[in-house]
């Protein structure tokens, strides 16, 4: 089955993977390292995390390429190694992808803001995403542009992907909850973002990160008013708590999974988790999906 | 025009993010030899406080917050050279601020630095990925009142604690107040580090710095 078949099948709820960074932290990710370089330095660890998600029941998992744009890699003086990083990322996930499982090309924010917050231009965003998308295209089944906090950056990323690929595309923005509703930190409302995304050549509209499962449920309900496109959600497992220098996410897995159940009932087509969720969370959600 | 009306106009220009008008008012205040400290406090600072409130209420977002602080800074740059009188010294304190070693997330730290400057603090922004030793050295050299350390990653926030440990080793723990920032920072973490406080956003950081220095 292809992703497009899943979208057409009303009874199919697509299970995404969960948090990647938090899994790396559990395995002792060195302070200050960008996870993307581990595709080269510790390929076995990366493959093992992908495998654990596929085994837990994920229909599709994303490549470890969240930060693999020239703009982002340049913060770590790694921009010249982008090809090696992305080729390894594709290899690491291909090696463990089960039959029928899909590979999602992951594209995260560049970490650079436009004026007056930063100095980057839309052209620079486009060019950076374009380099990433060209390198990923050969090994992915579909795309996930995620954790974007500026609608303009999202539109630059969509254009970059669409100029090199016809594969299905999920576009996920990250929102904060304010007294006036859901907004990006740059001030674009949920409604404005979804209406802009309705006009783009994309397949699924999504939201991920920042919000925990309770707030994400509210966001999902609000989103339904603005679009007929399928919706994808990947909430965080509450907020991280640090004790004795170690990070914990304290929201119980069952509580998170129950919120996901409600999101499915309210029409979420693709569900998964972001920071703090783990293969255990995905396993719990798989049980719920199978029981529906 | 009464002074109060003039101050209100300045404040409104800042809230409306109208740089042209704000600059015009700053020049007028200098030209007409007004009490410049009062102009800053009742006009410009009142405006930036309002911008901060609007941001906290979810009416303003990052671009408005940064733009407001930049306009404020540009106006202060015009006025400050004319504050001759020592009694008109504007600095409310010295802050050395940095994102910790291994962490390249600079945006939150930059916003806090910009807001603190807009509120009249002398801010030395050391940038991102700054080693623990460098932060302490700079704090000593700049005779800082406050050290602000940002960490956006749960993997790098341990560096915040190392700064405080190094200060203790050097018997400097009582010389500086240390405040923490960044998404993963919580009260529990502040207690564990024995830091002097943390703030969830830039306006909270200004409030925190003010309360620590007023003590």
Written overview of the protein:
The complex is a heterodimer of chains A (292) and B (215). With 292 residues, chain A is α/β, with parallel strands linked by helices. Chain A is 41% helix and 19% strand. In chain A, α4 (43-56) crosses α6, α7 (122-136) crosses α8 (151-162) and α10 packs parallel to α11 (253-265). Chain A is globular and about 45 Å long. Chain B has helices at residues 3-15, 19-31, 36-56, 62-79, 107-118, 132-141, 158-169, 187-193, 202-214; strands at residues 94-99, 122-125, 146-150, 177-181, 197-198. In chain B, β3 (146-150), α7 (158-169) and β4 (177-181) form a beta-alpha-beta unit. The A-B interface holds A 25, 29-33, 75-76, 111, 113, 116-118, 178-180, 183-187, 239-245, 247 and B 57-64, 66-67, 70, 101-105, 107, 111, 129, 153-159, 161, 184-186, 188-189, 192.
Q: Describe the strand arrangement of the main beta sheet of chain A, using strand numbers.
A: 1-12-9-8-5-4-3-2
Low-confidence stretches of chain B: none
Content of β-strand of chain A: 15-25%
Average pLDDT across residues of chain A? 94
Determine the strand fraction of chain B and express it as a percent band: 5-15%
Largest beta sheet: strand ordering of chain B = 2-1-3-4-5
Assembly type of the chains comes to: heterodimer
Q: Could you spell the SSE succession of chain A in H and E letters?
A: HEHHHEHHEHEHEEEHEHEEEHEH
Category by helix and strand content of chain B: alpha/beta
Q: Sheet bearing the most strands of chain B, described?
A: 5 strands, parallel
Q: Element order, helices and strands of chain B?
A: HHHHEHEHEHEHEH
